[in-house]
UniProtKB/TrEMBL annotation, chains A, B, C, D:
Species this chain originates from: Sphaeramia orbicularis (orbiculate cardinalfish)
SUPFAM superfamilies: Aquaporin-like
GO cellular component, one term: basolateral plasma membrane
Pfam families per record: MIP
Top-level division of the source organism's lineage: Eukaryota
Descriptive protein name: Aquaporin 10b
Swiss-Prot/TrEMBL catalytic activity: H2O(in) = H2O(out); glycerol(in) = glycerol(out)
UniProt membrane topology term: Multi-pass membrane protein
Length: 269, 269, 269, 269
């Protein structure tokens, strides 16, 4: 489990490190988003066969709410993700050590022209209020959940093996391109908090928690609200359009099977 | 039905909001078009299994003309799309409220350096005459229909599940990259009118209808002409090359089946 | 047949028209190449089921050389392509009439800051000698043929339906990104000559044939040399590694079958 | 074998030549990385059916370590790749001869504003120490191996034919976008040394070995360390999560079969 988030973070955050420390000569806003998206794709490919590829604790919560996995798995995944993202941040710092030292002049700062904290976790844009940030993250995570549930819904069609991870990557690119300018679309509590803790320890100091008017808790709380909303909307949307297929126990057990096939695919082969 | 257009609009228009309000630091022309394309992809994935994924009323009209669905569905879809696009616009405005306020200085305008109306619906470029806009939209919608009919034509080959939505997204990207500079390739009457009504109410005022020499009706009327033309061209193109497969009743019923399989896929599983 | 090239040209050339006449605000070098690539993808999808999707007469020649189609088809395709590309150019001119008039100030020129002839067909960069252009086109067309033959070679694996057209598009993007700066990678005699004839008639005048030191014949002759070279290299490459599968009549008839399945797929279903 | 690296190099390096000699008008950092990625995709498609598509000697070493091929193949591939990359570099130089002469003013240099050696092989960025370069290449090659092993692991799911080469290309793009700014992600000893030897002979002189504080050996040695590390991590990661499937001889022979199916696919059809 730990490894998914590490791969995801290593790639996604490396893409940001590259663009920021090269001052835009080695990439652009698009390449950063492509990095995040492709990091998710390969994170899933690395882990999908061994322990399921739940790369966001909000998604784990949603599967629990839908009765597709026991609640005990949720905190387990959360802790594992937190550790994976922390180690991923440490690896990115190691790989970009020279570049970050030269770019920042040796002063690790959270804001200003030579800020490097944005490589590791999210900070709000200057224009964003706290309420605006909460709305942004609720809308974005709700959209993430609706589309993920749709892609994995066997009633909607049976995708060829390997297409679902690519579509999840495309979805993350989509959100990055359409909902990334307010606060960098964290979407993922553990992926945001783990690296924030790393930068706190590694020399950026307590400013990582104070910045943006105490921003740090928004990407932890708001995605759960958005995930809950998205799961509800998708279920209602399906309910409305499937009047003749009641959510009976039989239906649910089919959903469980589906989940195992699509998300934990290959585990029992 | 309502939800397809909402997802589509939320993503596509969010991508425009992001680029415009960040003044190009968080995206480019390409990322806006990718946003529109990926919005369509996930719009289709969300809705393809429950009620068909007709995301453009011109496409609905074409299917009716080809005898693949009753005419009653066409106005139903049109109304549903109009409402979905209106709600999508409201959500984008909510999510980008802070950014739009700061960028526009609180003055919601249709033209000028701080114009924000272009986030929501189409306006013609300065060089474009009304006739030029009509030609542009007729050509672009005809191309859209020809290629969509080709992708969904089972006689051309049987695509793996999940590829058709991706190809439709690629097609929208294609048109955005090759036919987007004249008037932003609206192509879709309801997707253009719904958000225009929202901006009319939300504070941009009657300028949204007056701008571009009363441009607003062109993206409503011209796509129907283009859709009709595209459907005719594709049918003739097929007729010319399939001399031995007459458009008999049997042929038509095969086409109806095809439609159900590809567009309404999963509905009856 | 006519329609493939028309769709291909309409999209690819429209993407160039958009970038040039918007002076780079509505696209970039990458979007032009994406346009060319996606134009090929949808050109193939439109025509693959009815009459084969041979969108380059050099490819038709190669299939004839390999004994997979009679020689009579080659000039037939060439003429059809020439006409299709001519009509495609006319449609692009119609759609971008306003934009071209405003950008060029009403003066249709082949060179200089307001040149618009490059929208329609290839001209060499200033640094390129005629021999350099011939080498460039021979290398690029040879690569095109080697990769197309590999993608369609059933001995290399059986691709899912719909993947081959996407790969051909990716190949054209590839060549555009790696071999496009010398002379715009024409690769395709009919696609280059048809629009050149259109611009000759439509007002750009005889300069379209005189420019670049009489460049016009290079993209007509060199691709045939490169296509021949690429076909030979691929056959030798296969021969060397398949010592136990002699190119017997049986082998050839298998190749013919393959061709029908992959290129003319769907025709006989 | 020789041909894989040649195709790969011709495309990847051509994309760099295009961007550098056009001074950025015909591409960007993203197009160079796309070129490298697509070069790998078509390199694999050209060679996958005839002799396996091992395009990196580090990958060959990993397959030997996992007992999936005899050690004798490793030096054979290394030599073949070296020659292929050398010939690829010669072809790129031939194709871009005019452009390189004009851009460099006839003086082939390794550093400075008109440097052209970076078209052919890797040089470290100014900020990078030798240790930083080693860390960068170890991390990047380890990631490459982990993800390649995951994509090809049949226990993780059975991909449709033709998807694996595309995913390998996406992986190379990923690494280019997230780990390319330190030293250009060589990752591949033969692909780096072959062209370096070509530039040494062709007129860039001994500076190609002296530059970057004697950088040349890092991209030869560090990828092997990273490859070893990546192979170990993936095996441990699988071992930890597959407690009930011991790495017995039977397991191994399954792995060998897998290898033949995925990498050498089509050879024995």
């Amino acid at each position: 489990m730990l490894h998914i988030l590490k791969v995801l973070f290593l790639i996604g955050s490396g893409a940001a490190a590259q663009v920021i420390t090269s001052q835009g000569t080695h990439g652009s806003y698009l390449t950063m988003q492509l990095g995040s998206a492709l990091g998710a794709v390969f994170g899933i490919f690395v882990a999908r066969g061994v322990s399921g590829a739940q790369l966001n604790v909000v998604w784990s919560m949603s599967l629990w709410l839908l009765g597709r996995q026991p609640w005990r798995k949720v905190p387990l995944y959360a802790l594992s993700h937190l550790l994976g993202a922390f180690l991923g941040a440490a690896t990115v710092y190691l790989q970009y050590y020279d570049a970050i030292q030269v770019f920042s002049g040796g002063h690790l700062s959270v804001a200003g022209p030579n800020a490097t904290a944005g490589i590791f976790c999210s900070y709000p844009a200057d224009h964003l209020s706290v309420w605006g940030g909460i709305v942004d993250q609720v809308v974005a995570t709700a959209l993430l959940l609706i589309c993920c549930l749709a892609v994995e819904d066997r009633r909607q069609g049976l995708l060829p093996d390997g297409l679902a991870p690519v579509l999840v990557g495309a979805l993350i690119l989509t959100i990055g391109l359409s909902m990334g300018s307010n606060c960098g679309f964290p979407l993922n509590p553990a992926r945001d908090l783990g690296p924030r803790l790393f930068t706190f320890i590694a020399g950026w100091g307590e400013e990582v928690f104070k910045a943006g008017g105490g921003w740090w808790w928004v990407p932890i709380v708001a995605p759960f609200v958005g995930g809950l909303l998205g799961t509800l909307i998708y279920e209602l949307l399906i309910e409305v359009h499937h009047p003749h297929t009641p959510q009976s126990p039989g239906q649910e057990s089919e959903a469980v099977e589906l989940e195992e096939v699509v998300v934990d695919s290959g585990n029992n082969r």
